[in-house]
Design a protein that fits this description.
Protein name: Transposase IS4-like domain-containing protein
Number of domains: 1
Number of helices: 2
Order of helices and strands: EEHEHEEE
Organism: Desulforamulus profundi
Largest sheet: 2 strands, antiparallel
Strand order of the largest sheet: 1-2
Number of strands: 6
């Protein structure tokens, strides 16, 4: 999983990536933000941070407030997988592009 932080000011002629973090997809979004927030704030003064709703936690909110940063959360959050659909983990995939096997054995 990759998390990117970028500028988003209308007055900037271009927006630039200011921080990135790569971790296993099993790491919670809130944990990644909690770990990266001090690193991001060390690089530059941030007063506003826009993230999706999956990054909300009381601990993240308090850490941001303590450093003078207001976090704005969108309504975009993850959802539970549909029970009527076959998950990607049910397939065996070679070289990230060739399906070797699937649940119904039809290839």
């Amino acid at each position: 999983m990759v998390n990117l932080t970028e500028t988003c000011a209308d007055e900037n002629p271009v927006q630039i990536i200011t921080d990135y973090a790569v971790d296993k997809n099993t790491v919670d979004d809130t944990q990644m933000l909690k770990n990266r927030l001090p690193v991001i704030q060390e690089k530059m003064k941030i007063t506003d941070l826009y993230v999706d709703g999956g990054y909300y936690s009381e601990e993240v909110e308090l850490k941001a407030q303590d450093s003078g940063t207001t976090v704005y959360y969108t309504d975009m959050t993850g959802k539970k997988p549909a029970s009527n659909k076959i998950p990607l983990t049910s397939f065996t995939i070679k070289d990230n592009k060739i399906i070797v096997s699937c649940p119904d054995c039809i290839i």
